[in-house]
Amino acid sequence: MTGFAWNLLFTAVSVAVVLSVTFAVALRRGRHSVIDVAWGLGFAAVALVSLGASAEDGDPARRWAVAAMTVVWGLRLAGHIAWRNRGKGEDPRYAELLGDGSAGRALRKVYLPQGVVLWFVSLPLQVAMFQDASPGAATYVGIAVWAVGLLFEAVGDHQLARFTRDPANKGKVMDRGLWRYTRHPNYFGDSLVWWGIFLTACDHWTGLLTIASPIVMTVLLARGTGKPLLERRMAHTRDGYADYAARTSGFVPLPPRH
C-alpha cells in the first residue's frame, strides 16, 4: 500500500476510536448529545494523524497549514459546544431522533452515519497533506475563505451566547447581529471553513477529486442533520419565530425581507 492508502486506513481508525470513546461516555452520562463535542475533535484527530503519516511525502508548509486550520476550527467548536451544553440533559433533537434511546439504535442512527460523514468530509485535508508542490494561489485563497468562515461562525456563536445569557431574552428570537441576515450563521461559517480547506488541496488536480466532500458538508448543514428538527422546535418555543423565518435567509446571509 502507498503512504496515502495507509493514511486513509489510519484516519478511519482514528475516527472509530474517537467515536467509540464518545459512545462510552454517552452511555455513562445518559445523553448522546456529547457527540456534538466529538465532531470537532474527530476532525482534529484526522488532521493530526494525517500530519504524522505524510511526514515523508507532503510539502511541509501545506501540511502544517492544513493541520493548524483543522485543529483550530475543531478545538474551538468542541470547546464552545462543551461550554454551551454544560449541566444540560439530552438534546431534544437526539431524543426525537432516537426514540427509545437504545444503544443499538444510537449506533445506527447517530454514531455510524456521523463517523462516515466525518471521514468523507475530511478527504480534502488528507489529500492536501500528501501533495508535495509548494502552496500556490488556491491554498492562499483557501486560507482566506477558511478565516472568514471561522470568524463568521465564532462571532455568530458569541452573539447567540450573549443573547441567551440575558434573562430578559428568555423565549425570544435572536434576530440581531449576524442572526439578522441568516438563521444559521454558525452553519454558514462552518461550510466556508470546509470550502477553504478543500481549496488548499486544489493547487494540484488531485484536490479537485474531493469536491464532493465540501458539497456534502454544505448540503448537510443547509438541509440535513439537526436543522429541520431545531427549526421545528424553535417554531414551538420561540414567540415570533415564524415571522423571523419568513424574513430571514435560512443559510446564506442576505438582507432581511420586509
TrEMBL record:
CC annotations in GO: membrane
Transmembrane segments: 6-27, 34-52, 64-83, 110-131, 137-155
Entry keyword set: Membrane, Transmembrane, Transmembrane helix
Keyword Transmembrane listed: yes
Top-level taxon of the source organism: Bacteria
Protein name listed in UniProt: DUF1295 domain-containing protein
